[in-house]
Amino acid sequence: xxxxxxxxxxxxxxxxxxxxxGWQYEPxxxxxxxxxxxxxxxxxxxxxxxxxxxxxxxxxxxxIRAVRRDRFIVDGELILPVGDVLSFDAxxxxxxxxxxxxxxxxxxxxxxxxxxxxxxxxxxxxxxxxLKRRRFALEEFHAAHGGPSLMLSxxxxxxxxxxxxxxxxxxxxxxxxxxxxDEPYRSGERAMLKVKQHRSADCVVGGFRRAKGGGVAxxxxxxxxNNDRLNHVGFxxxxxxxxxxxxxxxxxxxxxxxxxxxxAPGGPSRWNAGKESEWEPLRSELVVEILYxxxxxxxFRHGTKLLRWRPDKAPSQCRMDQLIHELRPAELAxxxx
Length: 337
What we know:
The protein is an alpha+beta fold. It folds into two domains: 3-197, D-amino Acid Aminotransferase, Chain A, domain 1, CATH 3.30.470; 199-322, CATH 2.40.50.140. 19% of the residues lie in helices and 32% in strands. It has seven helices and 20 strands. The chain has helices at 58-65, 88-93, 99-108, 131-145, 159-168, 241-251, 329-332, and strands spanning 10-13, 23-28, 32-39, 42-46, 71-79, 81-82, 85-86, 112-121, 124-125, 150-152, 175-180, 190-196, 199-210, 216-224, 230-236, 280-281, 287-292, 295-296, 299-300, 305-309. A hairpin with a 5-residue loop joins strand 14 and strand 15 (230-236). The longest helix has 15 residues, at 131-145.
């Protein structure tokens, strides 16, 4: 079994789920994608980029090695519950150079594997088989070997059910994936369709960064905590090129420190090669509504989309408690109901 040759099938982001017959829908949890290979005593967990995750999740490797099947390949998501949430921060903390640290975390906060596809079982190659057959094999595999650490993803063939997952899941899902029942596993291709879960939040514009031409490159977003400190929570950069220079004129009269009175942007990091990222602070007078996908460590994990300015909203109303944080296992348990 040559694990590195196989790349995971990926998803194309779409605005709406496809309807009609021939589709399987699956809730998308928020974790680390992993192709899991077992060949005798050899176990490998490969990320989407093809890098090994095995040394970072020894408890998952041990669980896979304990399965009473010598050779198989399954596709899934590594997720990590901490208390009552699924914590992406805790997953990232596993990517640590020290084996002793990884071993400690694996004991204190063990990860789980949520499987959603089966590509090989014993001597049976399934990657060229249609999804319908692969799902049947996966359900058989899980029925024989599943448990608290090896879980089976829900699925439905009804687009109405899938849309209801998005509508009622709150913070419990990253999105929903649609797959053709009659198609093989298309390794390395964007052959699935995905609708992401997005939420909106009203944020204070606490500062901005300039583009090379002098216009606004991005707005820095803040939210007030329980101590009325304005914390930097992310940015939005989807500003039309024609508006960048005009926006500087709007912001210039508000340039005044400190901008953020709690957690502030900038400072050395691995993303700016140890150099301070320059930004200009603003008085807390402007509010924008943004669209975001996930929150990790009280920050928007990715860049956000600017929906509109909110002159009707008081900055003091823009608070941390409006955010939907990490995914909750208790909510995940209700998705398939």
